[in-house]
Write a structure and sequence with these properties.
Order of helices and strands: EEEHHEEEEEEHHEEEHEHEHEEH
Strand content: 25-35%
Radius of gyration: 22 Å
Distance between the termini: 29 Å
Helix content: 10-25%
Number of helices: 8
Number of strands: 16
Mean pLDDT: 85
Shape: globular
Low-confidence stretches: 172-177
């Protein structure tokens, strides 16, 4: 079965002025030096899959520390003319209704999608039915006397334009609002197991539990079961516990170290991404190089069985070598994408399994 997305186009989003990646595979690893847009590609995919949901926008800006709950945040523009959503746009521009829109588009594959995010002035007016409806224009003549506010306009082929004047505080959800299932694993996504409770609830007592346990056994073969407990009150956080041979009672997953906790987050996210996208930022975090080949093998297997397209990032040579070894066992499934910055441009170079094998053998720089 073909991947969800074969060609990805990103224009004027964050670190990316323009980027075209063609011939993506089922499992993709994006490499490159710092500031080449690796994480921005994952963020663009999150926006595309969710139709730029308010939750996803808020989560992206909060993770980048471009989001504050300070009372001054209620002001639409700061003293220099920047608006609260400027971090989404290439170059962090001051607000203007004339800013060229962000465009994110996927072609080929199972689910062609397109999304544009532009800037407008918006004003809410009450119609004859008593409903507040937006009107927008690029340059209002009487701002601010008539109540115009700077906003982004989201145009999605799936529906009518939507307007957002500021980010909303993101809620914790097992998967983001989406037209395609999409689960994101942050660089530190395995550190707070309490955040994985909702993902666990979706697969508890199903066959997917077995897949998660099998993944954990890559690091510790003595593990026989895993579960989530707690959360009965707001003050009681949920935590993951495991049963393991030789230990008389269930113990917290954190007892076994950060690597197992990271793997739990990846495995749990993977089974929740069925029929959609799994995005992993900095795949190698917390995992020793000796187990990475087996982790990639599990990802390739479950991606095929559950019809998932995986896009991960890394700047580790160990991770690249592990990816190549796993990809060599399933030809045509794995693609490595190296991003290189040349001035304002980001250039992608794709390596399929045979080319990646040569690069790994000869230690050709692909990071």
């Amino acid at each position: 079965m073909e991947p969800k997305i074969q060609t990805l186009t990103i224009e004027r989003f964050r670190a990316i002025r323009q980027l075209l990646i063609e011939n993506l595979g089922r499992v993709n690893l994006i490499t490159g030096r710092n500031n080449t847009g690796k994480s921005s590609v994952l963020e663009a995919l999150r926006l595309l899959a969710s139709g730029a949901s308010t939750d996803v926008i808020g989560n992206i800006l909060q993770f980048r520390e471009e989001y504050s709950r300070d009372i001054r945040y209620s002001q639409p523009l700061d003293e220099e003319g920047f608006f609260k959503l400027s971090g989404l746009f290439h170059g962090f521009p001051p607000f203007s209704g004339e800013i060229d829109p962000i465009v994110i588009e996927s072609r080929g594959g199972q689910v062609p999608m397109k999304l544009s995010i532009g800037t407008v002035w918006v004003r809410w007016v009450e119609d004859s039915d008593g409903m507040n409806r937006p009107i927008s224009q690029k340059t209002p003549s009487l701002f601010p006397e008539e109540g115009w506010s700077p906003a982004i306009e989201v145009n999605d082929i799936a529906g009518k334009p939507r307007y957002l004047t500021r980010p909303t505080y993101p809620s914790r959800q097992p998967a983001e609002e989406s037209r395609m299932p999409c689960v994101f694993v942050s660089p530190y996504g395995g550190e707070q197991t309490a955040e994985l409770g909702a993902l666990w609830d979706k697969i508890a007592l199903s066959d997917s539990e077995k897949a998660v346990v099998e993944a954990l056994r890559i690091i510790n073969p003595e593990i026989s079961a895993v579960s989530m407990v707690g959360g009965e009150s707001p003050r009681q956080q949920r935590r993951a516990i495991v049963r393991a041979e030789g230990i008389p009672r269930p113990v917290p997953l954190r007892t076994f170290g950060d690597g197992l906790n990271r793997l739990f987050g990846i495995a749990l996210s993977l089974v929740n991404a069925k029929d959609g996208l799994l995005l992993i930022d900095e795949f190698e975090n917390g995992m020793h190089h000796t187990i990475q080949v087996d982790v990639w093998r599990a990802i390739f297997r479950l991606a095929r069985d559950l019809d998932i397209q995986v896009v991960a990032t890394s700047h580790s040579w160990d991770s690249i070598e592990a990816f190549q070894k796993a990809a060599s066992e399933v030809p045509e499934e794995g693609v490595l994408v190296r991003l290189t910055r040349k001035g304002q441009d980001i250039i992608p170079t794709l390596f399929r399994e045979d080319e990646l094998a040569i690069a790994a053998r000869d230690r050709i720089e692909v990071r």
